[in-house]
């Protein structure tokens, strides 16, 4: 019985401490400057695990082969924050915290289903919007196919897509 009472007291103390931290204003919510290491770890881990869990629970969409459509979507919406081969993000993309990843370097760490889930649903508190209500499913699948081609794509190849538009 003492163990259960001690456990309950510890939970209440933890809840009070958490409330005190939040209510005190000690956590910096400014969109300027990096998060502390523990906060960055917490947010990154929560995002990665959440995406993996939810993407696995949904039926995986059929892959797209329409790279032209995927490029158009990427070039009109994504390149401003994520950049691309030979393209730096614009000022507002560089000012987001956490910094949007350069997808050519990070896309390999995600499955197609996870990338689709991120594009469709967005990620809270990162600047990554949901495109589910503003774009058709075929566009979402096409942009996933395109970003999966970014690793190894040269600036010249990216420019060829631009010229073809």
From TrEMBL:
Pfam families: Cytochrome_CBB3 (PF13442). Signal peptide: none annotated. Keywords: Heme, Iron, Metal-binding. One of its GO terms (molecular function) is metal ion binding. Gene3D superfamilies: Cytochrome c-like domain. It comes from the Bacteria. Residues 65-151 form the Cytochrome c domain. This is Cytochrome c.
């Amino acid at each position: 019985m003492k163990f259960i009472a001690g456990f309950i007291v510890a939970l209440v103390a933890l809840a009070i401490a958490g409330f005190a931290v939040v209510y005190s204003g000690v956590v910096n919510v400014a969109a300027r400057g990096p998060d502390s290491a523990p906060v960055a770890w917490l947010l990154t881990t929560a995002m990665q695990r959440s995406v993996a869990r939810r993407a696995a629970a949904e039926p995986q969409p059929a892959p797209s082969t329409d790279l032209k459509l995927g490029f158009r979507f990427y070039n009109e919406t994504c390149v401003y924050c994520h950049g691309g081969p030979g393209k730096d993000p614009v000022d507002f993309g560089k000012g987001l915290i956490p910094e949007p990843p350069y997808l050519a370097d990070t896309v390999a760490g995600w499955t197609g289903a996870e990338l689709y889930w991120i594009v469709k649903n967005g990620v809270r508190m990162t600047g990554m919007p949901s495109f589910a209500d503003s774009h058709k499913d075929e566009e979402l699948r096409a942009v996933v196919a395109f970003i999966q081609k970014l690793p190894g794509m040269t600036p010249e190849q990216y420019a060829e897509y631009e010229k073809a538009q």
